[in-house]
Design a protein that fits this description.
The protein has eleven helices and ten strands. The protein is an alpha+beta fold and 353 residues long. The chain has two domains: 15-159, no CATH class; 164-349, Phosphatidylinositol 3-kinase Catalytic Subunit, Chain A, Domain 5, CATH 1.10.1070. The strands form two sheets. Strands 1-2-3-4-5-7-6 form a seven-stranded antiparallel beta sheet. Strands 8-9-10 form a three-stranded antiparallel beta sheet. Helix 4 packs antiparallel against helix 9, helix 6 (181-198) packs across helix 8 and helix 9 (283-295) packs antiparallel against helix 11 (326-339).
């Protein structure tokens, strides 16, 4: 079982990372930052449609500030969705701003509504953390999912990732007679492999969503990470394998029931091959990111050394022992996709480190 024992310390954006963000148009001037939203003067608990406390609070701003703040938030949404073109945003309005009071980073969530058809969308405003930015960028480059986010000084803007939260899916959808267990299990194996190879930790069911897409005969599933704070931070290999979190056990049991070790290895190989191809297609940018990350200190020396030792044992590659940063470990882990393309250890029947 994987357990994270200590609260992660946020990492400031270093100069090399700032340069990377500017080079690839991730940094831009924004009309408002995270601290501006802390000026709210009142809040009320936010309940879901069943009357359950969501642990979010809807915040309210003074009347003389609200128009300016909401106008700035609308401009940020325009930057995210329409490259700043406000003319296509005339029919949109800011419905509310919520604050997550229980989370470590206390993010704000902005709800944007289309006044014509009542359709809505969200985006998030957070304190920028270098670990999270590396996680977002690695997700954008190496996963099947493209992500939109922006950075302004110490403020991070993230788009909303659509899907059913993993814990709710487990609670409410596993008994659905239309559930395709084999496809869900296959996707979890691939998600497990993606997280391990790029070293994204803490992927228990509250930190990912499941996106369901109807196919002409069946349904397809895509598991998407929504929390990137634990990118390459912990020192134990098990933290980077979603299979070792007890919250995910119901999905693990479906996998054990429906898949053979041979099929697990097949899906692992498919995902590793896809990741290797994504790296080849965007080699320059991936190398820039890994070089930047190698210069940064996103975790402790103890965590770097322990993870290097565990991966050296797993891959039977002593080169991991010489890594001095998490960036170097991630770079070498990704290199294993090409150097050892036929290495598929059956995580689902292995033991956590």
């Amino acid at each position: 079982m994987a357990i994270i024992s200590k609260k992660k310390i946020p990492v400031k954006i270093c100069e090399p990372l700032r340069n990377y963000l500017q080079k690839y148009d991730r940094e831009t001037d924004l009309p408002i930052d995270y601290t501006s939203l802390l000026r709210y003067d009142n809040s009320i608990p936010l309940y879901d449609r069943n009357g359950k406390d969501t642990l979010w609070e809807t915040v309210f701003f003074a009347q003389d500030e609200m128009q300016n703040i909401y106008g700035s938030l609308k401009k940020i949404y325009a930057l995210m969705k329409a490259d700043g073109d406000m003319s296509v945003m005339d029919h949109l309005f800011i419905d509310r701003v919520d604050l997550c009071v229980y989370g470590n980073t206390q993010p704000f969530r902005v709800r944007v509504v289309n006044r014509i058809n009542d359709n809505f969308d969200y985006f998030y405003i957070k304190n920028a953390d270098a670990s999270r930015i590396y996680g977002l960028e690695l997700e954008h480059l190496l996963s099947p999912n493209k992500l939109q986010y922006l950075v302004f000084k110490d403020t991070l803007i993230e788009e909303h990732i659509v899907g059913i939260p993993g814990d709710q899916f487990i609670k409410n959808h596993l008994d659905d007679p239309n559930l395709n267990e084999i496809r869900l299990a296959k996707e979890f194996v691939k998600f497990n492999e993606r997280c391990f190879v790029r070293l994204l930790g803490d992927m228990h069911s509250s930190n990912f969503v499941i996106d369901i897409t109807p196919d002409f005969e069946e349904v397809d599933y895509r598991i998407r990470a929504i929390d990137f704070d634990q990118q390459s931070y912990e020192g134990r290999r098990a933290i980077y394998l979603p299979q070792y979190f007890k919250q995910n056990n119901p999905i693990i049991q479906i996998g054990l029931k429906n898949m053979t070790p041979e099929s697990v290895r097949q899906y692992q190989r498919e995902e590793r091959s896809l990741m290797a191809n994504r790296i080849k297609m965007d080699r320059v940018r991936v190398d820039d990111l890994l070089h930047t990350m190698s210069l940064d200190k996103v975790s402790s020396h103890e965590n770097v050394k322990r993870l290097g030792e565990e991966l050296a044992d797993f891959y039977e590659e002593r080169e991991f022992l010489a890594c001095d940063s998490m960036g170097e470990i991630v770079s070498l882990s990704l290199e294993m996709l090409i150097r050892k393309p036929d290495l598929y250890k059956d995580h689902l029947t292995g033991n956590p480190s």
